[in-house]
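Treating backbone geometry as a discrete language has practical consequences that deserve illustration. The sequence in question and its structure tokens are set out directly beneath this paragraph.
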Amino acid sequence: MRPYEGTVISWIEPEKEPTKHFISDLKQRKQQFNKWPGNIILLFRNGEEKMSFITKNKDLPSRIQYLTANPAAIHEVISAVHKPGRDHLPVVIFLNKRGEILYFSEGYRIGIADDLMKFMTHVIP
């Protein structure tokens, strides 16, 4: 038995709510996220935004990768999950190892990190 592996991908706006709330949740659960064998990717609109965020947020889980994303990619993902294209950030997705979307959240939602923990701690044979 092992934890459910996969990837969390999130498009964020670092200086705005509700992204700040999501980032706070990641910090609070740093130890749990560090123990999980999956990947966490935070996507930014540009390199300046990414570097500013990294500089200001040293206490996030070590598993996080920071990347700059093509702005059109978010529209493609939202279309793929058949959601209206509101593009309210953060957009948070959990993909299993086969690339299937098991979780999708867009905009303000309390408990995103709790929801992700359910997938990360779910044990599969």
In short: The chain has five helices and seven strands. Helices lie at 19-28, 30-35, 47-56, 71-80, 112-121. The chain has a mean pLDDT of 84. The CA atoms of residues 3 and 123 lie 5 Å apart.
